[in-house]
Each structure stands twice: as structure tokens, then as C-alpha cells.
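LAB NOTEBOOK - FOLDING QUEUE
OPERATOR: T.R.
BATCH SIZE: 2
PURPOSE: Compare the predicted C-alpha cell outputs for two unrelated chains run back to back under identical settings.
PRIORITY: normal
REVIEWER: second-year student, initials M.K.

ITEM 1
FIELD SEQUENCE / FIELD STRUCTURE:
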Amino acid sequence: MNDLEAINRRLNAITAWAPRMAAVEGALSGLTVAVKANIDVAGLATTAGMACRREAMALGDAPVVARLRAAGAIILGHANMDEAGLGAVTDNPFWGRTENPLRRGRTTGGSSGGSAAAVSGGLARLALGTDTLGSVRIPAAYTGIFGLKPGRGVLSGEGVVPLLAQLDVPGVMAAQIEDLAAAWDVLVPAQHLVPVVRVAVLADVQAATMAPAVRAGLETMLILARAMGLKVETRPFSGLCLREARLCGFWEAVSEAGRRFGGDAVSPRLARLFAKAADASEGAAAMARARDIVLGALQVVDAIILPTAPQTAFAHGEIHADQVDFCALASLAGVPALSVPAGVDLDGMPVGVQFIGRPGNEAGLIALARQLLACWPEPRREI
């Protein structure tokens, strides 16, 4: 057994190892990558965490994987995920539970939890996930790494098993901002960077319930932003219901997944969700209202700052229905968002704060994160 396999036995992050291919010289030479199991990797079945797809062999790499491989990255294999992407704890009924590398017995979040665990646990320097309502950013926050959800349509979704096509995007995770930046330069070469000068916090978010450590992380980021000379403002209360927007997005995802996978053999949990989706009310109006609020704010500021999740990583078996409340906003608006490590709680578990940016300015968010983290009081991560 090699070192990676030994680490993986403890974490259960990688569910299938990819065939080894000849090394390629490039900008990412030697950089190891874990790929969420709903993204095509040559030589592996794209299961999307579903037993009914165990034989769904990929004919080749998805474009996002192919770009990294062509730049010299080493694809390790498929990472564990919630079944069909419908979940936020990465406790899969067929491939098992992924452990948080920072504390056994704690969740990694989901649905890209295996990808986050692979990076945080030292299996890979980079990981690909997918984000519908927070599935890249929440695991990144819970494991103390960076998680970038690009804007809709920036990266190709070809070769990705969809959940909710109107919101799904491939995303990138890394433990170091420089690795994430290098990968982004490969995925979207020479993207125009617009400096972030004005930042807003939504009054609705400030008034929301969140753990004390999460609020402290948010406040620290705001203090740093002001100290750097950024203009920070509070957008007035907008009537936005975070819970309503999140629920509408979730049930839209369940409904579409039910239409796509309802005839397949799925777990009892997924079957129950599909049955409930038939009774869920239409959420188009609430989703549109959340989108308009975010896009309206981004017409007058360059970025919005808010927590990634209302809490830090919790114990397996606990239920926190509000995990997606903050992440849903960028997803519904179709704009980029970057989750950044922002300290730890009293139990030593990481806090995540995210920045939502204007369409097409992922590079600007990465540059902002570099600036802020350079000013973060040490030790930034006591993990």
C-alpha cells in the first residue's frame, strides 16, 4: 500500500484511482488533482455517486479535466460525493462516508466533500468539484481550503453529470491560493482582471443567525478590507428571504434530478426526495428575486462579502438545514464566488468567508483573496 492509499483509507475521499498516464510538461507539471465522481475521467465510470451508474464508463476526459491534464497535472481519480449531488454531508449510501481530515467524526460538507477532503488531507494539491447551490464552497469552508465557484458558462459543463442544469458549474478547490490561481490561468487563460475596490455586506446577512466564530471571521475580513483601503458599505435590508431562496433552489434541483434519475435504482432517501418534489411549490419567483438583489448590488459594488456557511463542520448525523442559505445567492445569480479560510472556532474547526463577484471577474476575486490573506493576522489557520 502506498502513502496515498493509506491516507485514503482513513478519509475515504477517493473512490476510484485513475489509470496512470505519461507525464506532460506544462504550467501544472506534477500538480495532483482529485476529480468529483460526476465529472468524466478517461478510464473510469462516471458514477455521480450512484450505484446505477457503476458501468457508465467515460469515453474520455471532460474538457475541464483535459485542460488540467494537458498542462501537466496528474489526475489521481474520482472523489466521493453525495448521491447524484443531492446532499451536503458526503455520506454516500454506496461508497460510504468521507471523514473531515481535520477532525474524525466531522462532516466535510457536500456534495463535493470527497474533493475537499482529498485536498485538505494532503492527497491532492487541487480538486475539481461541481457547485449547484454551494457544493464546492461549503466543503472548502469546512475543511479550511479555498473553493471557487465560477460564473455560469465560464467553464464547460460537457462531460459532467448534471443535477440542476440552470445552476450547475464545475469548480476548483486548493489548499494554497497560488495553486488555485495557477489552475485558473490554465482553465481560463488571460482572463481580464477587474480590481475589487468597493465591497458590500447585505443587511439581511448581517441579521441572519450564524455561529459566533463565523460572525467573527466575517467581521475580521471586513476590518481587513477597510484597512486595505477598500470601500465597505452595508446594503440596506432588501426583503430577501435567505431560507426561501435556498429552499426553492433545492426543490428545483430535486425535481430535475427526479426527472433524470427517477426511473433508476436509487437509495431510499433519494426516492423519498423525488416523491416529495412532486408536492413542492414552484420557486421561480423567489429564485428570480434573489438573483435580482445580488445583480443589483453588483451594479454599484465590485463584490459582496458574506459567510460561506452559518456554522463550521458538525458531527456526522447532525442535521443543519441552513447550510446553503448564504451560498445559494451567488448560484441563483449565476455569478462567481470564492470561499476563503477565515480563522477557526473554539474547537479548532475552520471558518469560511466568501466573496461574490461580478460576472466574468473570477480573477479579480482570486487577486482580492491574495491581498486579504497577506494581511491576515497570524496564525491564520490553527489546524
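ITEM 2
FIELD SEQUENCE / FIELD STRUCTURE:
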Amino acid sequence: MLKMSIDHLKQLRNELENQRWKIISEEGGNDYDISAVWVVARPDGSNQLHIEFEGLDDLKTFPIEKSFACHVREASDISVYFGKISKSWPKELSDFIDKIKRLRT
């Protein structure tokens, strides 16, 4: 599980950067259901969004490396699940990024 989430995080970061989004800060979660938060924006600082990494477990909150999904705080219906990296993952990631672009254009 751990390596799979690390791969998802790397690919998410790369795709955001490829689409001209910059991660301007990486913040801690809320010790309940959010593992961490990436604050992202365009290179000029505009269109700031918060990507929240979901990590709710029975007794603790998973670290970001073990998170199982993420969503955009400003539009929680924009989300992507970190399931098994498979043939469908690139499309799921691309759809997630496309929805973010449409939200802030």
C-alpha cells in the first residue's frame, strides 16, 4: 500500500506541474480524516486551491504516503481515488486535473 500511494503522489505532483500548477505549500492534516493538504496555484499565485488527502482510519489518521484519495476543498466533488495503479489510473488522474482546470478558468 505504501509504495502505491507514493507513486500516486509523485504522478499527481508531476501532472499538476505539467499543467502549470505550482504546489505553494504542503500543510498538515486535521488529525481526523485529512492526512495533509497541498495548496496549489498558478505560477503567478492566482487560482489558489487546496487539495486535501484523505486518510481516515479507525484509530488514527494515515500519513499522506498512505492516503487513499484526495479531493479539492473548494469543490469536494472533484476527487480521485488512489486505488491500484492500473491502465485506468492515467485517465482518472487526467480527468481530475481537467476538472481542476475547468473550476478555475
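REVIEWER COMMENT (ITEM 2): The longest helix spans residues 2-18.
FOLLOW-UP: none requested
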